[in-house]
Amino acid sequence: MRFDVITLFPEMFGVVRDLGVTGRAHAQGRWSLHAWNPRDFTQDVHRTVDDRPYGGGPGMVMMAAPLEAAVNAAQGARAALGLGRAPVALLAPVGQRYDQAGAEKLAASDGIILICGRYEGVDQRFIERCVTHEISLGDFVLSGGEIAALAVIDAAVRLVPGVLNDGDSALQDSFNDTLSGLLDSPHYTRPEVYEGESVPAPLLSGHHANIARWRRERSLALTAARRPELIESARAKGWLNKADERYLAELAGTYDSAADAPKRRRKPSATSAQPPKAPDAS
Fold it and tell me: What is the model's pTM?
């Protein structure tokens, strides 16, 4: 998988390229990163990449020509390696919200070209000519697209097979389908008692079924408290079983234990058990 990043600050991407699990995976050749500076595609002595907005207003706007030239160079480099044309995504507040499903889709692909905007924005003509997707991390504004691009890359790379030491680690992440799209449960490590607080007893029991149920219930409780819409989504997809629903009802104080009690069959009375009486002969 290959990431091409169009950015005025290529040095920022050393964080994800050189450090941590993503850095190790990059050194192993499991993914690659190539940064392209729009200033390298300018024609003037000042290497100008921005100008004042038409119509007035504060701030500067990134010019279309250097960005498009950088994208073309990235597509050409990919083609030389036998890769097809990559999608081009602009990191922008107006974009589609990036989530775990998006990271999984990206991790299964050949990669993407990410455009990191700066200043007041990017010339709309570049967006219409070159951009195929727009990505947002949420309802807030950053000073540039680099930090958002780092998050996009990290979330996808860690899902590439072989990147994490334990391949099952990603399956236990929040939002993963193996957790029914819910938030992950709390985690504990040594010491067993810290500042008077002990590790929850089920985790010390060695009873795998009890541990699994404890984690499931903590996941349900945390999600119900902080992201209730994820509970509704899991319910709509049929990912919650009867035990899950019973626990959620207990949390909400709406659980009726009598409704779950097994129904006892009524023993037929002596009268009802007798065969019907034959009619009198006339």
Answer: 0.83
Q: Are residues 134 and 245 in the same domain?
A: no
How is residue 218 written in tokens? 């903590």
Q: List the 50-51 sheet strands across, edge first.
A: 50-51, 61-62, 121-122
Which candidate in 93, 104, 213, 235 is catalytic?
93
Q: Is residue 2 among the annotated active site residues? A: no
Residue-wise pLDDT tens digits, 180-229: 899 989 999 999 999 999 999 999 999 999 999 999 999 999 999 999 99
Answer yes or no: 276 catalytic.
no
Looking at the structure, tell me whether residues 6 and 107 fall in a common domain.
Answer: yes
* Residue 182 φ/ψ, nearest 5 degrees: -95, 175
Cα separation, 249 vs 231, whole angstroms: 12
Domain with residue 55: its CATH number is 3.40.1280.10
153 Cβ partners below 8 Å, 6+ apart?
A: 3, 13, 16, 22, 33, 114
Query: Which residues, in sequence order, are bridge partners of residue 231?
Result: none
Residue 80, domain extent: 2-157
